């Protein structure tokens, strides 16, 4: 390690003034980052990870925070060490973007929706580096190639909403790297990304660090990503650093009870090898929980046959349909009572559309959907509304799916009011029981969504889905944005409810380790089709389709001694699902490789 670290945080304390008094975001934190080193800062939401990084950028003042104590020493390229807490905002403007780059967590809010990608990439280069428009555009093209964005010339002219989440995140990374900063702060840069894109972006940040000697402060709650990226780890809990050390030491001999609990809550791919039925995780400090396998039944509840959902693309003067997005193409599967089928795949593969099509939140073009003997496709609007009692949905973003102006008790009771199932004291009792079920205190009933953490909001969404005693729940990426320990609790909760109430789940996710933990059956989707379908054990222990194999290979493992190299990741670019109006897709043909385990026969690369 160098005598002069690039960044050194000493005894940092950050306070926020609120109506109810002073809230301490970070109490007393010290650590440093050397050139060419990646320091991962881990901890749950609210532990002070992002507050520390925003303090280093001196952006915390714009968010209502105040650096009450401590030093932030940054070793400048030309000026030597400087305490950033004493720098004025004009000097900070020169340092930000030029010498310290930042990748923000949410790419949609980090990019300006009214400017093209090219304009946003060239802006920093012109301001900080004094480049001409032509020089800046040439460098922007080079950056987009570095972050592996296909057709970079076209992307420069596009707006952020025209790119997928993974592409937008790559643009944000390109912007952060544009001026070759000495320190790169990455705040949860891969949280919302698919496993394949995440693997590519981690490899990219690692390669750029090695090539340029940049110091990297990497903030995450995903321990598998820490194992893949970190040289050293700083563990934060409630505004304090509770443990620090080399990555192997933290994973193999964690000292602090919080670090031990954090590592115990990580679902690891391969943990379920050899078992046929899913079972809840054993959580630290929870002796009362059941961890028995959940066999379910062999009685079919949902049958989906040849489901097709397409979205028209209109164009020309008369807005005619010129092409179709083939979102779901000839999908068939069954779900048994009390069992879980998981659909996995990358963004844009059609998982969520398939889930919404089954509930007819999106109208399918054709196909058959049979729920417990009821033909869902032929139902009139009134009959469909009554049928919705039996099938409910948990959405990906709990904040967007809850009403910010309603108290939580009213949101959970609303489905029962709508269907006239209960009223008065019976309704209040049922709502209180649902809060108990999802392990939230009854005192929360009078709260509003903004007063809860992400994991607590997701529990409210689960309670609301349970209010009508449904037979089937479709969980669309229900745990993808949660901290690892909260995710483990919510997944366990869903499994306990399944064992108790005999619920069936269609679990839509891109997190392979969670899918392995919860599933009885797994379907792997690619470009609107299921390319492999079978019992979980068969699909995970003997993946047959090349795409399933590539997906498994990309999953980061929570073990620093089993890091993936860039050579391991050989993803083919995903072709477009848009085809012109007269296009007829190939028929879907499967071969059965073992009982119930089917693989798509295809002529394409995958």
From TrEMBL:
Residues 275-296, 562-593 are annotated as: Disordered. Keywords: ATP-binding, Cell inner membrane, Cell membrane, Membrane, Nucleotide-binding, Translocase, Transport. Residues 7-263, 302-552 form the ABC transporter domain. It is found in: Cell inner membrane. Pfam families: ABC_tran, oligo_HPY. The keyword Aminoacyl-tRNA synthetase does not apply. NCBIfam families: PRK10419.1 (NF007739), PRK11308.1 (NF008453). This is ABC transporter ATP-binding protein.
